[in-house]
User: Fold this.
Amino acid sequence: MPELRQNMATKEWVIIATERAERPDGFVQSEALSITGDQPTFDPTCPFCPGNEELDLEIECWPERDVWQTRVVHNKFPALSKDDPLTRKFDGVHRWISGAGHHEIVVDHPKHNTTWALMAPNEIHAVLEMFQRRGWSIREDERVEQIIYFKNHGHRAGASLKHTHSQIIALPIVPTNIRQRLEEARRYFDDYGQNVFRVMVENELGLGERILVESKHFVAFVLYAAPAPFHTWIIPRQQSISFLYAQPEELADLAEVLVNVLRRLYFGLRDPSYNLIIRSAPVKEISNDYYQWYITIVPRLSYAAGFELGSGMFINPTLPEGCADFLRKVKI
Amino acid sequence: MPELRQNMATKEWVIIATERAERPDGFVQSEALSITGDQPTFDPTCPFCPGNEELDLEIECWPERDVWQTRVVHNKFPALSKDDPLTRKFDGVHRWISGAGHHEIVVDHPKHNTTWALMAPNEIHAVLEMFQRRGWSIREDERVEQIIYFKNHGHRAGASLKHTHSQIIALPIVPTNIRQRLEEARRYFDDYGQNVFRVMVENELGLGERILVESKHFVAFVLYAAPAPFHTWIIPRQQSISFLYAQPEELADLAEVLVNVLRRLYFGLRDPSYNLIIRSAPVKEISNDYYQWYITIVPRLSYAAGFELGSGMFINPTLPEGCADFLRKVKI
Assistant:
């Protein structure tokens, strides 16, 4: 029997359509490890490979230029402009803001044919530290209201270049969707005096059936109301509204958890496309009790179609508990 | 210079990234008319072709069984169950509703290798009338709160069968996204005493630069804050909250407008994948001044990636005015 489940943090409903149930192993990708494995270690035409760097685009590299492990560059075709002043216009009935902001690319690793699932935890750790350094620096810009850190892996996830990279976009507004989620979390706190994300984590830990990884500082689980197969959240155990406040020890631990989860996807489903997003509160919020930063991992195994566009809801043909069980059993 | 534009009805921001501007003709599909044109008129393996009908799934056909022009069947793998009772459960901290509802398929036309862009207006009219009849019938079901009528055309739009068809999904809840849009429209009415959709239409008619088609009863235009290239709305001139209330004369006129817009996409961009959605108020709302039913057409020319999933915002690499100009010039 199909069922509707609600994500208690976002209030979004999903349909778990067990009538059309697909088993988790139905999503194993047919082209074995195709995104990453088919590539050479070095590609002479790749702008992210060592030796091909466009130095005028460079913002920062670590540990140093000639032996960089991770580096940050300006996006050559930025979606937002770091130099434009912030101006607002009421254009007749329309509302318009200049595209002021930042759009940076983090080249995660010098090797052309690797990806987070194949990198060592200390290499991911270096990328997370780079995110944080860039976040603190971008936060100095008074025009910025919201920073999104994300990674697109594979064609279906929107990656146009194969060399492993991540992106940072800093916006001069708080997006409507994020504003609504904050409001839902605030409302839950108002109703129950509890942080809804903490309640979710405690509940998942108590049940255990959707848990993927537990570490000292983080918990990774497939969502109860997963909009799509294998949709996973990684939440800190300690309440905090922003990734920017994560301590060095927590980042090191997070790197281990990320590698663990991503290796399960990589080996279990054969390198599926995925998006990974770090969700933090707007940068000008210093602290509050109701919100929680976290990471979302969305394997891109199906297409959003007319129903999803028309309702904002998703139809998930798998049981989240079954997906978690499948991933827990993957040998990494 | 990139800019942010806000859709005044939904309050959603989009980035119009003119730095990475692509010209509208950059979206012409490379495989000429591939979705529809390559198909035979009749496919012996297609469950929607005449002669292959599974009669036990049939709900209704028009004008009659042996010479049907359009027919409605139960989805063989329904996302919701027409027979299940509506039950709610608080499962620990989680909220759960049985998947009670309807999931019907409208086979638009007997021919295997046609599509709305190639059908005659009176054939589309028959499909719209079928939508309405089914909507009125489904509305009798007290469990139903929201009906979504939609069409997925092409693989990238989520269509798994090539024979032209549409879908009707009836939900036992009002989705969060629709609730939020209703609330925004109500708020605009509260602030200004005007229906925000009427204000948008008047404004577009006054400017003209994004208009695609004007008819006696409808206006079609590319959105000022289009989330993606060629994202189009078709809005009735007469305020009404539900497609179910459209009069026969209006449906006939709408069929002409739909064919006009879809032929521009078909010939201008060579049969791109698209989703088409009819957006109406929840079925138990009888009338109000602030909402408006309308149709959204979303050509699927790009992928939503990490930024879009993380922010709910979209980056559109084209100017909506340029897209409208391109489509207006297409010879249909």
